[in-house]
Amino acid sequence: MDIICASSGYVGLERPQKGIMILKKGGFDKILLNMATSCSAWELENFGKIEKETSIRRKKLKKEIKISEHPEELITAFTPLLNQCWKDNIRMPVARAPYLLHNTKRDDLEKLLSRLVMESIKVCKEACCSQLIVKPLFSGIKPRDAWEVNHKYYLAFKDIARESNVKILLENQCRDINGHLVRGICSEADEAITWIDRLNEEAGEECFGFCMDVGACNLCGQNMQDFAVSLGKRIKAVVVRDCDGHNESSLLPFTSVKRSQTQTDWLGLIRGLREIDFDGSLIMDFSSTTMAFPPLLRSQILPFANTIAEYFKWQIGMKNVLKKYDTRVVFGAGNMCRNYMKCYGEEFPPLFTCDNNRNRWGEQFEGLEIKSPEALRGLPADCAIFICNIYYKEIESQLREMGLQNPIEYFNDEYMPSYYFDKLEYWEGAEQ
């Protein structure tokens, strides 16, 4: 699973060196190649309009080239960034093509957007980028005509995308109705599935996939678990961003709260992605949070954002970690172990469990014998030990100090497929 950082607020196109250095220090080695940094939605909204010169200084400055007026210059605009990424070993697995504002009234830009997507694919080829997010056309299109218009739009890219080894990803959208955001194109799973499958069928191969935007799902009030499970392996990338469910924003996950409750259904998202064995790209977009901070403090956000990304990766991939091993034992005989056995005990049965509480050695717990940690010394070298206790680091240190060389993994029951609330009664020395 790739962790990718949306680098808005950190990396400039003309002088990217410092921004790339800050991202690397923050723990990120992959970034989103966002073409909108060179051709923004605001630029497209004002395309063709006459600008008034309001500053004598501006008149004297050399007028910069606008990509909307010269799409062929897109690759030139990104050359400094590409060179710096190659130099610093930064990968760009996913890109985003320029797009319109969600409340745009412009319905005359289809040809320009098509040209910009073509040029974006060329940049992707140069950057060895394998996926390009291309938002559907929506402005001025009646819902009943959306497929017909977009069908022609997307298929126009299949040949150059195939030649460039780039997969086109559709993305779920919000629709703006008098300032209210409602479900738009591809926000219904059935519609997205139909579009992707028909496009791939006509392309004769898998040229198209899906990018799931968590923020759009939240704004549309969707059940993210059902949405992810329905789309299944069609999901190649997920944009992870928080918002309040009413207004467009890209906040750091778990930061949009009301009365101490998160406003995004992270439980449903993680459950859904785990159920489909998601192993694509997690695109961390916290650009709104970044821009709200003073520039001198922004670099401090990155290590924490990377920790959150690793947490998502761990939670989503937990079942895949269980699958890696033919044999396993668990450490801990409390509620976390109970939830493990209820959810995964039949599919991935442990040989036994162990616990530091000597008063429980020899007991049966959820069908497992509770043994002393010393019993772990007799395990085959490839048998994994799954720690089912919140004191992960302390227990791992204990096991390593015993000289154990077995794989050690952390199990967590915060986002299990279901919850079991028949809590154990605690006694002195038991798991807390």
Can you describe this structure?
The chain has 432 residues and is an alpha/beta fold. It is built from 17 helices and 18 strands. The strands form 4 sheets. An 8-stranded parallel beta sheet has the order 1-12-9-8-5-4-3-2. The C terminus is likely disordered.
Quickly describe the structure:
By secondary structure, the chain is an alpha/beta fold. The chain has 17 helices and 18 strands.
Strand neighbour order, sheet with most strands:
1-12-9-8-5-4-3-2
> What global shape is seen?
elongated
Report low-confidence residues grouped into runs of 5 or more. Answer: 53-62, 424-432
Radius of gyration (CA) equals 25 Å
**What is the helix fraction of residues, given as a range?**
25-40%
| Class inferred from helices and paired strands | alpha/beta
Mean pLDDT score = 91
Total count of strands:
18
Specify the number of helices: 17
Tell me the strand percentage band.
5-15%
Sheet of most strands: 8 strands, parallel
Ends: how far apart? 32 Å
Give descriptors for this structure:
single chain, 432 residues, alpha/beta, eight-stranded parallel β-sheet, six-stranded mixed β-sheet, 18 strands, 37% helix, disordered C terminus
